[in-house]
Amino acid sequence: MDPFDSNSQTDRANLPRNMIENSMFEEEPDVVDLAKEPTAFPTFPGLDPDETTYEPRSSRLLVRGLGENDMDEDEEDTESSARLLGMSFMNRSSAQRPSSSPYARHSPPRCSRPSTRTMVVCVLFLVIVASMTMVLYFLPGCTFTKSGCSKPNKTAPLEPGYPVSTNGEPFPWAQYRLPRSICPLSYDLDLNPDLDDMTFTGRAVIGMSVLHNTKRIVLHSDNLNISKATFKLGNGEANDVTVLEYKPRKQIAIKFSDELKAGLFCVLTLDYSASLSHTYSGFYNSSYMDKNGRKRVLAATQFEPLSARKAFPCFDEPAFKATFLIKITRKQNYTALSNMPLAKVTQLPDGLMRDEFEKTSVNMSTYLAAFIVANVTPISKNVSGTLVSVYSVPEKKEHTDYALDAASKLLEFYNGFFQINYPLKKLDLIAIPDFLAGAMENWGLITFRETSLLVDKLSSPLEKQVVASVVAHELAHQWFGNLVTMSWWNDLWLNEGFATYMQYTSLQAVFPQLDIGNLFLAVRFRALDKDALNSSHAVSAEVNTPEQVEEMFDSVSYEKGASILLMLEAFLPGDQQFRKGIIQYLREFTGLNTNTDDLWNSLTQVGVSPQHLNVSEMMTSWTSQKGFPLVTVSRKGDQVTVTQEHFLLASDNTAHASSLWNIPVTYVNNSCSLAPECKQVFTLKTESGSFKQPESVKWLKLNYKNTGFYIVHYGDEGWDAIGQALSSNVSVLTQEDRASLVHNIFALSRLGRVSFGRVLNLLDYISKESETSPVTEALFQLNNILQLLDKRQEQHLVARVKKYIFRQFGSLMSEQTWEEEENVSKQELRSALLETACSLNEASCIQHAKALFKQYVESNGTSRIPGDLQQTVFNVAAQSDEDWVTMLTAYGQVTYNAEKRKMLRGLASTQDARRVVTLLQYSLKGEIIQSQELPLVINTVCKGFVGYLFAWDFIQEHWDSLIDKFAVGSFPIQAIVKSTTSQFSTQAHLDQVQRFFSGLKERGSQMRSVQEALETIRLNQRWMNENLPALRKLLEYS
Ligand SMILES: [Zn+2]
């Protein structure tokens, strides 16, 4: 999935993420706390191998997660069960391997039969449990609490830890993860959506195999009204069964009086009805205005991560792969689409049509299933035996050519690159008018926001870059994610880090003219910024609640994941070694589920390194701990010493336990600094190490082209030497290296390791800089400081920083043109420069922008504003009363979405308080502005001085509506929390933010983004305290 707002790529890596480590809030237990829920129910009979019993709250971590109830890890049994049942979804390799990591990781749900040894242990265990239960049961009137049998309680007799079903019976499962005694093999789904009523009915026929003897089947179902359930064992009769439901965990269960025996096949048939969801997940309805202003409706799905259960009852965890056969009833004037090609169409007596799609030719995780009923039309092309189609609403068909071309070229590229052909006969890409994520990689039916797929004929290359990049990401998922899937959400990065890495590398190969390198570098900087916080988390992190699952969709899984893959790729000898390794990984695990160790082991095996490099040893240090290293370099004679420590932005200045990474430290020096051959490598595994460089070497630059995920401090002498070298000749380093120096020095200032004077020293050279990456990075950093000063009302300093910016970048700003520009890198450069210039009220910039807007309005939209300048122009126009109104009208009429979104940002950049509030309300209601745009509106509003306090009030007031639209912990919520809080820098605001979020309890208080928000405010506060006096002094003379 690409959860990002694809039109703000520089912002998108700037969104929050962290881990609740030193949780300030009391965490609720995952298991039922009997002391809290005194409802009476009897002991549930019949424990089977994945049974658990109640554990006191203090040890709840031992109960949580699926790994702990994994009572049988016997590889032989796993394999034999698999062969017996012809199943392929088990993770073979991880069971063969002892856990090498000191960091706890849950095993995936492995469906295996117990060994004799395990059975004996289980029986003994059960006997003990039963004896204890008996003893406790006969203790009169005793409530079992975490402190043991404490006080007598006549009304609450003994209970074993099972929650209560909706009908009052005990629900036979007490964990978040499903038991693995039953494995689904096939889903046969019959769906009848009614787009007038916004409801649907369905029948799910689920074929399953019994892997362990068990007396229950537990699966997921979320808000489905199940009207009938039948169960058939082997060749027996189908019988009605009672379905129990435990709503808090979205689980349903069927209990049996006799054990279902391992090895048997059974079928569960469930008839149900539900409402089409009004949010953006599950089977949801969506509406849009067609070109005639008529309201049209459609129904679409978004299942990742936890919403397939809203559309059909299922085993909704990624490791439960199965086949799908999907049938959908629709009206004649609608098209239905699903993962597979259409197999047959039947006309029903009531005039409706029933489309039956082919059964999936692959085993698929539930989150990848998809179906859509809409009024859409395709354009298609055959690519190496796969029919590639791009669908849109009919009036936007003319905007689909570019996506078809990009998808076709990228599909061919990936078929060759991975040496495994895309396995399905068709691949549809569809632009959905109202869609929250950037895109979703459903197998064979990839769904997109319109802005991520549609390109106007006159679109700028920068807009094409957005589309090609999202298409490249989603297509890469057809291998990384769909063909080989992470076993559990803790390793989401195996999907997302890879797809992100491939999105950039494939674009560099297939569309070099789109110049994606600058963007990839910028997102790596933003990933470092976020990972520097204490609230960050390991790439492969523990995930035990729905909120934690949602929160894995963050920059650590995506951008840090991609960054460490780039680091590995750059480190492995030869240019094909990394590729060989991933081909090996894909071949070995096709159709299966994996964890992080499987990837590293594949890469170690391939003989990728003549020196028998242990990839696993190196990379585990990057995936199993949060953060990244600060490498400090010092020189004495010909001796260069490098030391490492955790680059941790801590507001409290307390010492934290240090971590060690296995760092491929690369470096170049003044005698050879540009070509790849200049790069030398030193592997730093311990706290410090040293290598030799001739004394005659004037300076060293570490982390060549910033391919490593670390920050470098050169010490005063080192920074001086580099600064002087750059001042006399900018081209002594690559532009990536220059950008990396700019990024690193600001980061070190935030860490408190260098003074702001040192930052300005390095930036002395920047007036001679003209390349995109260093300029945009410097502007990004300076704009951040400007924003903080502005929000603190330090107007005097704001004026001085503005003056500084104009002095350093003024001549480059005035060199920029306002005509069409074809070069992507130049577009990026000028849009950053001019957007800054106009936002700082630079007269000539404002004048150009106003003139372009006037021309645009007077020509009735036929005169075009160059795509990369539209945002600057609209932002300027929105500051005038008259033009703001004109633009609001135009917003309702423009059909091309990329332009439309830029208008919306323009509108939201207004400094008129009433308009800010109006826009926030419109987008919350989803009428004039679709709710999918709410995070964008809030983000833009918060950049302005007028809007940011209104936005903070607004989210507090409407929090419940927000989490009704977007799940707690989801990417839009993370973005909203970050936008509204990241510019606070005072104790009063810190207290307010803390008070509000802690009061939310289960409605969001435990989100990592909240931890991050608090940490960020404290860091802002500290930075201000430490730097304001110096800043006043420095800028006075600058
Ligand atoms: Zn993705």
Q: Which secondary structure elements does this structure contain, and how are they paired or packed?
A:
Layout: H1 9-12, H2 60-63, H3 75-85, H4 92-96, H5 116-138, E1 142-145, E2 148-152, E3 182-194, E4 199-210, E5 214-220, E6 225-233, E7 238-240, E8 244-246, E9 251-260, E10 265-275, E11 282-289, E12 295-302, E13 323-330, E14 335-338, E15 342-347, E16 353-357, E17 371-374, E18 377-383, E19 386-392, H6 401-418, E20 426-432, E21 439-440, E22 445-449, H7 461-477, E23 485-486, H8 493-510, H9 517-531, H10 546-551, H11 556-571, H12 577-589, E24 593-594, H13 596-605, H14 615-623, E25 629-636, E26 639-646, E27 663-669, E28 680-684, E29 688-692, E30 700-702, E31 711-713, H15 715-728, H16 735-751, H17 756-763, H18 772-791, H19 795-815, H20 824-839, H21 843-858, H22 870-877, H23 881-893, H24 897-908, H25 913-925, H26 934-943, H27 945-957, H28 959-965, H29 971-981, H30 987-998, H31 1008-1037
Helix pairs in contact: 6-7, 7-8, 8-11, 9-11, 9-16, 12-13, 13-14, 15-17, 16-17, 16-18, 18-19, 18-20, 19-20, 19-31, 20-22, 21-22, 22-24, 23-24, 24-26, 25-26, 25-27, 26-27, 26-29, 29-31, 30-31
The chain binds zinc ion (ZN).
